[in-house]
Amino acid sequence: MxxxxxxxxxxxxxxxxxxxxxIRWGVxxxxxxxxxxxxxxxxxxxxxxxxxxxxxxxxxxxxxxxFGGTAYGSYEELVADPRIDVVYVASPHSLHDEHxxxxxxxxxxxxxxxxMTLDADSTTALFKxxxxxxxxxxxxxxxxxxxxxxKLQALLADGEHGTARQVHADQGFVVPGALxxxxxxxxxxxxALGGGALLDMGIYPLTLAHLVLGPPERLVGVANLxxxxxxxxxxxxxxxxGGATAALTSSMTSQSPRAAFVATEIGLxxxxxxxxxxxxxxxxxxxxxxxxSEWIExxxxxxxxxxxxxxxxxxxxxxxxxxxxxxxxxxQTISLxxxxxxxxxxxxxxxxx
Length: 353
Known about the structure:
Largest sheet: 8 strands, mixed
Low-confidence stretches: 4-12
Oligomer: single chain
Shape: globular
Radius of gyration: 20 Å
Structural class: alpha/beta
Mean pLDDT: 93
Number of strands: 14
Distance between the termini: 25 Å
């Protein structure tokens, strides 16, 4: 299925061509990641947080008290607010489909937290729904909008640093309860909410490999599963075009390196710890036996923790009248979901219907 760069406007008919006019946001769900997002939203000059919605009016009021805007005690009230141009969906994975549809049906553009849904078919259907309604939809894969990651892609594209041949990437940390075998109590340990290492953490190593190597020709995954059937630890070996390979890991039971490296035939790019939100890049050339290293700065600043850069990308798209992002296009989001579907099938993880 193809999703073109069609032109569109919001359900209210509002245009976004005037850079002096703010783009107005509503935040759907008010948990940890929504708070990080709102913190960076305040750093984007043409962004305005006008409302936040939660299933609890008290939580919405607490969020609005800290970040501003009107508080709503239901998501239906939030998306009905005529002031909102675009909704940021920050609810648990298993609710993304429902809540994104809710916002689209209300005529709102949507930035949906990753992963967009629990499987590729549902993700594809959401993009079709948005396209049919003439609305913008993008997965909140902030890493793909990060200026350091984009600089890495540009350096690989210029050919002077060689061709990417190997990616090593890891994302993980200890999730309380994962080691003790406790009953699922938090979102990340709950199968009904799409819990597990792959969708929460493994999506970052897979995305990095996709961004620098393209879609995989083959993925092979192994995993350590909990008694409730979620993946606590995952290791993935990938084969890509031209014989390039990737070693990708994610963990909920260890203080893993959280680092990433991209190797070419002449050198090594080091994205460092927390590679999914890097602030600079280290290149080591091995043209000489001892090697020479240099730090490479991005061409534009990282805004806040990096959520600000994906907000800027949403604004760029809306002001251009584009329904999809070139940095996080539908085919990329769908491909990553297909990759995770394939790995889940191999490791024996499924989610309650």
